Amino acid sequence: MRSSLPAALVAAALAGCTASTPKPAATAAPPTATAPNASLVRVVAHDFTFDGDKTAPAGLVAVRLVNQGHAIHMMGVARMDSGKTLADVVRDITNPKVDMSYWHELGGPGAVSAGDSVTDYLVLEPGTYSLICFWPDSTGKGHVQDGMMATLTVTGTNAGAPALPAPDVYVRQTDFHLELPDTLNAGPHMFRIDNDGPSSHDLAVLRILPGHDEAAIETWLEHPTMHDAPVEAVGGIVGQSRWASSEFAATLPAGDYLFLCMMPMPGGKGTHYMHGMIKRVHVT
């Protein structure tokens, strides 16, 4: 996600998401373990900085974002080609005419509310990576504009093909659909997100808080205030490129959830969820 989140059409998207959703993907048994072979990178989010590990070995990495701030935060992970810096990314990311083929989006821990955490599993090659929070404040300004960014240096030899954690929920993304089950059991899950493109996509998992409806969520998504949110963000992934995939672990309490892609459309035409990339899921 690289821009603000206008939501003039979200009510229509919410109302029509069930009818336009593809057939649910199959699920396996709940995960019995995560990935003991993964290295851990732990980053703490504050308002508005990242604090934590600055280096990691190449290979399978469990990237854990712990939110100790008051706002919702996320942390996009992207590899920068040699010679490029975080300053280049921050300068170019708001200009759609700039060629950013040097910046390879891999995902990263998605939106998570204060006091919670989310873990994303990524295979990282040696190099330098940008860590950026794209979540917007109530004015539509991304947290990155408040300085919420950092770099991660990955060292060692090529990552190869390490064994990934075993998912029990599969989410498939296309322009502009989400394919995943209609219902899930409460408790821990390992999600696998596959982006079949052709665009980059992210995934936000938002639990609808009791007493709130689609109209309240529409209003809040347009100006996501730090307090009194009608949803609780419990994880997901930040933008990943076409054909990319990643896994994230999250524990879901019972309730109703929105799974949606919040990436912006070109030309200021809203966000992907406004064009059908949204689904309501019931957790029992």
Looking at this protein, list some descriptive labels:
single chain, 284 residues, mainly beta, Immunoglobulin-like, 8-stranded mixed beta sheet, 5-stranded mixed beta sheet, 3 helices, 18 strands, disordered N terminus
Structure characterization notes:
With 284 residues, the protein is mostly beta strands. It has a single domain (10-283), classed as Cupredoxins -  blue copper proteins (Immunoglobulin-like). Helix content is 10%, strand content 39%. The protein has 3 helices and 18 strands. Strands 2-1-4-7-16-13-10-11 form an 8-stranded mixed beta sheet, with no helix packed on it. Strands 3-9-8-5-6 form a 5-stranded mixed beta sheet, with no helix packed on it. Strands 12-18-17-14-15 form a 5-stranded mixed beta sheet.
Distance between the termini: 30 Å
Structural class: mainly beta
CATH architecture: Sandwich
Shape: globular
How much helicity do the residues have?
under 10%
Radius of gyration: 17 Å
Total of domains: 1
How are helices and strands ordered from N to C?
HEEEEEHEEEEEEEEEHEEEE
